[in-house]
Amino acid sequence: MWLISYLSFLTLVSNIVFIFSIVFWKKIVRKIAPYTLELALIISIASTVGSLYMSNVVFLAPCELCWFQRIFMYPLVIIFLVARVRKIPRIWELALPFSIFGALIAGYHYILQLFPKVSETCGPPAGGFGSCTDIPFKDFGFITIPWMSLTAFVFITVSMLIRRRVELTKADNRKS
C-alpha cells in the first residue's frame, strides 16, 4: 500500500501546483511548454502503472467506470511514446479526445463517490467487479482513485492544450 500513499501524495502535490500555476500561468507555461509531451508521457505511464498496481498487486477490483477510465488512459502511453520517438507534431489532436473524455468519466465517478445515493448503478456493464461508489481509501480527506485519475487527465489535457497553443502560434508566425 506504500505506492498508493505515494501516489496520493503526488496527487496532492499536483493539485497544489495546479492551484499555484493559475496565479503564475504565463511564467509556468513558458517554462513547461517545451516539455509538455514528456510531462504527459510521464503522467500517463504513472497512471497506467498505478492502476495495474492497484488491481494486480493490492487486488482492488476495478469497477465499470474504472475500466472506462483505463480505456482512455492506456492508449495515451502508446500515443505519447510514438509521438516522442517519431517527433510527431500536432499530437494533441489525437490525445485531447482521450484525455477530455477520461476526465469527464473520472469526474462523474468522483461525484458518484461523494453522493452514492445519486445512482444505484454506475453505467453500462463493462466487466467491472467493484462498485463505483466504494472508496477503498481516502487520503488527505478527499483523494480517492477517481480523484487521482481526474488529476492525471486534467494535467494531460492542460499540457496538450499548451502544446497546441505553442504549435499553432509557431505556425502562425511562419505564415507571417
Description:
- Helix 1 (2-23) packs across helix 6 (145-175) and helix 3 (36-56) packs antiparallel against helix 6.
- The chain is built from six helices and no strands.
- The model has no long low-confidence stretch (mean pLDDT 87).
- It has helices at residues 2-23, 25-32, 36-56, 64-86, 92-114, 145-175.
- 33% of the residues are buried.
- It has one domain (2-13, 35-175): Up-down Bundle (Bromodomain-like).
- The chain is mostly helical and 176 residues long.
- The longest helix has 31 residues, at 145-175.
- It is globular and about 55 Å long.
- Helices cover 73% and strands 0% of the residues.
Topology:
Elements: H1 2-23, H2 25-32, H3 36-56, H4 64-86, H5 92-114, H6 145-175
Helix pairs in contact: 1-6, 3-4, 3-6, 4-5, 5-6
Give a concise summary:
The chain has 176 residues and is mainly α. Helix content is 73%, strand content 0%.
Q: So how many helices?
A: 6
Specify Rg, calculated over alpha carbons: 17 Å
Mean pLDDT: 87
> What's the structural domain tally?
1
**How much helicity do the residues have?**
over 70%
Secondary structure category: mainly alpha
| Topology pattern, helix = H, strand = E | HHHHHH
**Proportion of residues in β-strands:** under 5%
Q: Span between N and C termini?
A: 55 Å
Enumerate the spans where pLDDT stays under 50 for 5 or more consecutive residues: none
- The CATH architecture designation is Up-down Bundle
Let me know the largest β-sheet.
Answer: none
- CATH topology description: Bromodomain-like
Number of β-strand runs: 0
CATH class: Mainly Alpha
Shape: globular
